[in-house]
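dumping these here so i dont lose them again. two proteins, back to back, each one seq then structure tokens. dont judge the mess
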Amino acid sequence: MPRKPTRLTKEEVINTYTAMCDCPEIQGLWEPKEGDRIRHNSGPEGITEQYLSKELATRIDGFHGLWLPRQEDIQEMLRPEDISRHVPHTFINTHPDWNKLKAIWLWFEIQPPDYQERLMTMKARQFWLAFYMHTIHNKRWTDEGWV
């Protein structure tokens, strides 16, 4: 029987998600748009998070920060053919969101027990990011990062 997952503090969740997003596979996909959440060093104030305004999104060249994709951003990165790898053809539904949910559940069920335990400690966007990185890049999140 799996152990009960450890609850992380809000700061631990934010720091872990930031570390998960700090990889070329994610940052290389960023096309700045209004409402994107970014994390950057703002000088004496330290690390800050903000949402991009329409004006800032259009003049982001040379920006040195980190994009923190929303859950819907991650789900949009998944193509139908990525999803169909995890969902048997007989289960494919005409509703794309249902297919994504079915795929992530079936993917979770076939993960090793120790990785399932790690996944159960994650918030939804972290979980979706783990699913994306494993499905597209064959990487798993560990204490050392993506491997």
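---- next one ----
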Amino acid sequence: MFGEGYRAVYSGEGIAFSVFIGPDNGQQIKKYYRVKIKEPDKDEKGSVEPDDLKAQDGSAISYTRWISGQQEGTQNYTYQLKKPHPIEEPYTLQFVYRKGGSRTEPGEDVMAFQGRYASCQEAQAAGAANIKNTLFADGYTADYSKGISFSIFIGPDSDADQKKYCFMVRTERYVNSGAYATFTGVLTADGTEVPSYILTPQLHDSYDGQNYTIFVSGQAGEPELPVDLSALALQYRIADGAKMYVNGVQEGNEQSRPIDFSESTEL
């Protein structure tokens, strides 16, 4: 150890050493060491993420931002724009690069492309341009309403510790957390009103939370006639900017299409 050194594999948990100076029955000095090789820390390469969304003239806009978990390696960023900012309009998105906990300029080892790619080589082979200087400076201007993906790499493809980022960024309308849906009536497929009584969860059904119960009966004047539950349309009021979906299909702002309520239906 104190001559040519101790040769061993120091990766993983490393190697433990015990050093004693002096006899066991005297004023012995004991020293314990563990020596290991530190694996390269990918965080030393820095990190990137979408930052501020602005109008094309650089002015601030009002929005809330939602970040959802990764799906197939892609991080989803949703910017919910508040009125009066339109959704289908170009906006400028700037990315931020941080290293050592501080915001700084990305180095030459950072490459960024619009689109989803597994490597820098794949992006370049597809003819994608390196837009790093745009993303991290003035920002990338586009209509994000349909969603735009970005692939960013820190380090070359040959680097085993290369960091890869894939982001999907989109804009949508902000809906206040107090958004509501109030059901006001039931119609047959031909538009005839069906007598009904609606139990609203706020007044009657606290156990079921947001489950609505709607009682329907035969048509006015003909109560003995059964109601066809396989084709009923709902009338409702929804909050400004909200959308109504039935079994995953978006409906109109005031009335749904005829729905089959003879089976389970999710709104």
